[in-house]
Design a protein that fits this description.
The protein is an alpha+beta fold. It has 7 helices and 26 strands. Among the domains are: about 30 residues, no CATH class; about 100 residues, Trypsin-like serine proteases (Thrombin, subunit H, Beta Barrel), CATH 2.40.10.10; about 100 residues, PDZ domain (Pdz3 Domain, Roll); about 80 residues, Pdz3 Domain.
């Protein structure tokens, strides 16, 4: 007798799906017709919704609002606060613990004065926030209930692009809406504009399932009805792009909040980019082949106290290769604050090993202070260098002026930059700096001269060409 998969004209992958789902007909010799397959796909979706929907909730959020009627000048009778209807919004969430623990997006409940959780069976329960994490937009809620149906989690690392996914939520007030599609991508980042010196943790799953406002905080499910992620970001809706926090990151964050009430993460104190994405350094670093380029080092971070330098390429953490900034971020998440890690770096053809003790990622966001720009002098500089410098005792030389159209301007040197090294040579005087620039320009034609600078509270670099 032939195996059952051979009787399905749509291929072994689809056959395996139906076998695992228990949806194949009982008679092994009955070949499936196209209409049978469509009915099986339909029934699979129906099953997912019926199993998962009771664990998905609607969050009715009453927003905090302060509004009073203004008092007339010299009016002896104070006015009573004006009666204003409270602002309300809706979002989605889902149960992750049977004892009443739920999750949603932080932006859904961030301004909440009161949160009411509505279940599909009609129950309405008030919720309180147990904790949240701004950098992943996750909030953990608690309702007074037991024996709730909690959704199981899938392993988002094992998810495959192209697999079936679906979502349940309350888009535009349409309760328990079900949509489906494919997992379109993994490890998506660069979706949010940077707002602080602290890193944004962007590690999204991408789907083409229809996700609209109101789906936020709801689950992204696999074909077994297990949580692959939490729908959290909508970008370019007209292009059909939607995103979700992966389930493994979600579980890690929830576990920390339940244990300590907050999320703490280890911090190297650097800003980094995947090798190859840094266009200015692509030629100089081609020999490194793979790794993460250090763009800047924060002066209050742990890496600042070590020999790590901007333009170094991090290639491994504790012996495990890191090929992208996302891989480095994930590897750091697995460590603990205070732990010392081994960092393998490539620096201008030489491989080094550094030890860095991780600190706790600062909680308070820091505002980015852009360096002064467009304050260029119009003076004529015969040698086209266009750079006015001032010596600082023991610290290098400071940029006092940059001539418009000069080499210094093209290198993006900024006012108040402190030049500390040129091509690995420590700089103490103006003469040393200018000599090193001339020498480096002769040797590094085409790939530029690497200049280490201190700028607005961080170490970074520029390329002089």
């Amino acid at each position: 007798m032939q195996p059952r998969c051979a009787l399905i004209p749509f291929g072994p992958a689809l056959a395996a799906f139906f076998l695992c789902s228990g949806l194949l007909p009982a008679a092994p010799d009955a070949a499936l017709q196209p209409a049978d397959v469509l009915r099986l796909v339909e029934q699979a979706r129906i099953n997912i919704f019926q199993i998962a929907a009771p664990s998905v909730v609607i969050l009715e959020v009453e927003l905090a609002q302060n509004s009073t009627e203004p008092e007339a000048e010299n009016d002896p009778v104070p006015k009573r606060p004006a009666k204003v209807e409270p602002l309300r919004s809706e979002g989605s969430g889902f149960v992750v613990r049977s004892n009443g623990v739920l999750v949603t997006n932080l932006h859904v409940v961030a301004q909440a004065r009161r949160i009411v959780v509505r279940f599909k069976d009609g129950r309405r329960l008030e919720a309180r926030i147990l904790g949240s994490d701004e950098r992943t937009d996750i909030a953990v809620l608690q309702v007074d209930a037991t024996n709730l149906a909690a959704l199981p989690f899938a392993d988002s690392d094992a998810a495959a692009v192209g697999q079936f996914v679906c979502a349940i939520g309350v888009p535009f007030g349409q309760e328990w809406s079900f949509t489906s599609g494919l997992l379109s991508g993994k490890g998506r980042s660069r979706l949010l504009a940077p707002k602080s010196l602290l890193p944004l943790y962007e590690d999204y799953l991408q789907t083409d399932a229809v996700i609209n406002p109101g789906h936020s905080g709801g689950p992204l499910l696999d074909s077994a009805g297990h949580v692959l992620g939490m729908n959290t970001l909508i970008a370019r809706v007209e292009h059909g792009l939607a995103f979700a926090v992966p389930s493994n990151l979600l579980q890690q964050t929830v576990a920390q909040i339940l244990e300590t009430g907050k999320v703490t993460r280890p911090w190297l104190g650097i800003r980094a980019e995947t090798l190859g994405e840094t266009v200015a350094l692509r030629e100089r670093l081609a020999e490194a082949q793979a790794g993460v380029v250090v763009l800047a080092i924060e002066m209050d971070g742990p890496a600042f106290k070590t020999d790590l330098r901007p333009a170094d390429v991090i290639q491994a953490l504790d012996g495990t290769p890191v090929n992208s900034a996302l891989e480095l971020q994930r590897a750091l998440f697995e460590r603990k604050t205070g732990q010392t890690v081994r960092v393998d770096i490539w620096r201008q053809g030489v491989r080094k090993v550094l030890k860095i003790t991780l600190a706790q990622l600062p909680e308070a966001p820091q505002t980015i202070h852009e360096p002064e720009r467009n304050q260029l002098t119009q003076e004529t500089v015969p040698d086209k260098v266009g750079l006015t410098l001032k010596e600082l005792k023991g610290r290098g030389v400071r940029v006092e002026a940059v001539a418009e159209g000069s080499q210094a301007a093209k290198a993006d040197l900024q006012l108040q930059d402190i030049i500390t090294e040129v091509e690995g040579r420590s700089i103490h005087t103006v003469a040393e700096c200018m000599s090193a620039l001339r020498t480096g320009s002769r040797r590094g034609a085409g790939t530029g001269v690497l200049i280490q600078v201190e700028r607005m509270g961080r170490r970074t670099f520029v390329l002089w060409r």
